[in-house]
Amino acid sequence: MLPEVQEMHARGKTQRVFVRPFAWNLHAPTHMEWSPDGRLFVVERTTGKIKDTTKGGDLADAPAVVEGLEGPSSMAVLPDGRMLVTEFWGGRIREITEGGKADHLPILAEGLNGPYSLDYDRIGRLAVTVRETTSVGRSVEIDLNDGTYRTLVSGTPLIAPKGFFGFAPPNAFPDDYRLFASCNDWKKAIKAPGLPYTFALAITDMVVLIPEERRSYTFQELATNHVLATGLGWTGGMTQHPFLDQLFITQPIQGSVMALDLHRLGRDVAFEPPQVRNLPLASCVRFDAKGEVMFVCSPANGVIWQVEGAVRA
């Protein structure tokens, strides 16, 4: 059993971190997002549903906010209040603002190859990661008016990690379903005073930053000139703290969450302590409105963990 109290040692200090189940009996919860009206939504990858987890507890029989999605993977909220979701093996981005049956909801873009991580940055770019082949991906910017897209980052390496198999049906894909069932390339919009970057992109063991300049980049260019951190092991979902210039990122295989200072670029953090550990296959992290309580998804056991005391300014 996961201990309720963890003692984390950093900078010569010992800090107590309190961990307890917040919501359980979910089916492969891999991503969470706050809705415009303040509800915490979670995607269930294997059931094609999105559920409201705001109150926590046993969600086995909780009604779905949206159902009938083909591999829901990542949600994003636009400035006008619209809420979007990627359908990983459905190949589309769908608007879910009104909720209900997926086939009755508007489609923003379709014909995408494995659209995964989706977010909207401060200069008005809606970007999503997609697959080119079983070993190469890219990030594309979606036009909100007509659903067309252009390349933002090309040549991102894709490697199927251990531990994520089984979160998608093998017959859903024409090639290596293990890769398409994985958590490999997460992107998150960031905002830090003085930094000319608007997105962070996590690939395998590193996080690179995407400049605010409106042009296309190669992954090699970002990995050479715009690295935030290396030595992370396998990376998962991430989010910026509401009030700190820190990027919190999950490490699924290690079962931990690491905090990265957005103003300290190019660091190797392999030997730095995480904020919390022992969370089975941690895949997504979010905070409450006060920035005090952390929520972490564990698709391996269908639990969302509530973590307090993990934020160190």
Would you mind describing this structure in some detail?
With 313 residues, the protein is mainly β. The chain has one domain: Neuraminidase, CATH 2.120.10. Helices cover 4% and strands 45% of the residues. The protein has two helices and 28 strands. The chain has helices at residues 177-180, 219-225, and strands at 5-10, 13-24, 29-34, 40-44, 49-52, 57-58, 64-67, 72-77, 83-87, 92-95, 100-101, 107-110, 118-120, 126-131, 136-142, 149-157, 185-189, 197-203, 206-211, 217-218, 227-230, 238-240, 246-251, 256-261, 267-268, 284-287, 293-298, 303-308. The strands form six sheets. Strands 1, 2, 6, 26, 27 and 28 form a six-stranded mixed beta sheet that branches. A hairpin with a 6-residue loop joins strand 15 and strand 16 (149-157). The longest helix is centred in the C-terminal third of the chain and has 7 residues, at 219-225. The chain is globular and about 55 Å long.
In short:
By secondary structure, this protein is mostly beta strands. Helix content is 4%, strand content 45%.
What descriptors fit this protein?
313 residues; Neuraminidase; five-stranded mixed β-sheet; 4% helix; 45% strand
Number of helical regions: 2
* Strand residue content: over 45%
Measured as a percent range, the helix fraction is: under 10%
Structural class: mainly beta
What is the domain total for the residues?
1
**Reported CATH architecture:** 6 Propeller
Which stretches of 5+ consecutive residues score pLDDT under 50? 177-183
* Net shape: globular
If you average the pLDDT, what whole number results?
89
Oligomer: single chain
Biggest sheet descriptor: 6 strands, mixed
CATH class type: Mainly Beta
The run of helices and strands is EEEEEEEEEEEEEEEEHEEEEHEEEEEEEE
Q: End-to-end distance, in Å?
A: 29 Å
The value of Rg in angstroms is 18 Å
CATH superfamily: TolB, C-terminal domain
Would you report the number of β strands?
Answer: 28
CATH topology: Neuraminidase
